[in-house]
Amino acid sequence: MSAGSRGTTCPQAAEARSSVLQRTSAGLLLRPKGRATKKRAPQLYLCGRGLGSSSAINAQVSSRGMLEDSDRWGELGCTGWSSAEVLPTFMRLEDDLNYGDQPYHGRGSPIPINRDPLEQWGAVSRAVREVALALGYQWSDDRNAPHRTGVTAWASNSRAGMRISTNDAYLEPARGRPNLEILGDALVDRVEFTGRRATGVRVRIGKSWTSIRGVE
Fold this sequence. Notes:
By secondary structure, the protein is α+β, with helices and mostly antiparallel strands. It folds into two domains: 11-182, no CATH class; 183-216, no CATH class. It has five helices and eleven strands; from the N terminus they run αβββααββαβββαβββ. The strands form four sheets. Strands 1-2-3 form a three-stranded antiparallel sheet, with no helix packed on it. Strands 4-5-6 form a three-stranded mixed sheet. Helix 2 crosses helix 3. The protein is globular and about 55 Å long. The two termini are 28 Å apart.
């Protein structure tokens, strides 16, 4: 998961949004010109197509970026990306089933965050853990806690063994709203803003691009 506060500006982030979309027979979107920095060569990125986008097909790994990196980005001029600015966003989307009572996690929000207990790990995962600890790597109960690193259980966006995509978390509970219309074969390209307020989206339906404005 990645998030920034509203009104964020960062030259690297703006550059990374520059991409060419191509459709594959497997139903994926390719972004062959995506890159993280000027020094890195363009890399191929795959995006899931369908309700929930890539959250419907990805590995369900809920791994935050290092908050120390966020602070460094803020110091470099990426307004809105310091740890103090991104942490509230992480917390707002979480229902952390293990550490929701901690001041850097959230509870009761749409996306469940779950870590399997050690006794439920597979044999290979347990063996890797044992070898890493024997080599001197420290154990970390919560990889997403501030200033944590080491051997850890992956946090996943699942509940009772079931994947919770963004569609499951946000769209399905709202499907019956009279002001909601769900469009198929529609690709959202960008969120459009009026000042600092999101007011619509630019979307491709079939072969045509259009802007759809939000209403209260």
